[in-house]
Amino acid sequence: MLNRFLSLCVILAAFAVSTAFVLKKEKATPAVALNTLTAEEKAAGWILLFDGKTTKGWRNYNKQTIGERWKVADGVLYLDVSNKNADGFQVGGGGDIITVEEYENYELRLEWKIAKCGNSGLIYHIHEDPSIRYPWQTGPEFQLLDNACHPDAKIKKHRAGDFYDVIESSIETVKPAEEWNKIRLICKGTKVEHWMNGKMVISTDMGSAEFKSLLPNSKWKDHAKFGTFSKGRIGLQDHGDGISFRNIKLRKL
To answer: In 90-232, where do the E strands start and end?
Structure first.
């Protein structure tokens, strides 16, 4: 009996030490605050494209202002679709927004979540032209979608992570609506990679004959300037549905 009691004491003591070690370890690695850069990221050249407090650095496509329906709360940049006054398929007072600065050869990271049955997009290599109404008519779209509910999910090349209407994702890694997803977008020269939640889902060379052969069979066949730029602005799409972003950061390659 004494031996059993001593054995139990040893087990409990070991458990206590183990638990204390885990708690100490967790306390030593606190979560990084939203919309901030670590010392390591700063040293690596990362910059924030969203300060977590304002819409500074963003404006509407072909405008110098930003729609009042793009708002910031609790460290999140989001499109307010409550009581929306529709402007075509977009929200009245919303519209697609783009970075004030242009970028070339970079890695972009951000987190996004979408409302149930929602549709939106991350657009890049955007070229501004008063004769062109929407940024996605010049730059590729990294599709953001509720794959479980939105009708576009039934169409190949229209699902979350896809190079919209051109290339289908190799695997599906998107989380359900209203949950945060992580994106990496890597652009170097004409080469592009889409990453979703830690997995590369698209890799293509927009300068290749193979890529160019895909365009005549896409909705971009009548948009002569689409995909012809490797430098441009980065955009967040208003497709009339609730969409939220945070931790938007970029480093030049």
So the answer is: 90-91, 97-99, 106-114, 119-126, 141-145, 181-188, 191-196, 199-205
241, 115 Cβ separation under 8 angstroms: yes
pLDDT at residue 1 greater than cutoff 80 = no
Superfamily of domain 33-252 in the CATH hierarchy: Exo-inulinase; domain 1 (2.60.120.560)
CB atoms within 10 A of CB 76: 18
Cβ neighbourhood burial of 51 (10 Å; 0-12, 13-18, 19+): middle
Is the pTM above the cut of 0.90? no
pLDDT surpasses 80 at 30: no
H helix or E strand, kind and range, residue 209: helix 209-212
pLDDT of 29 higher than 70 = no
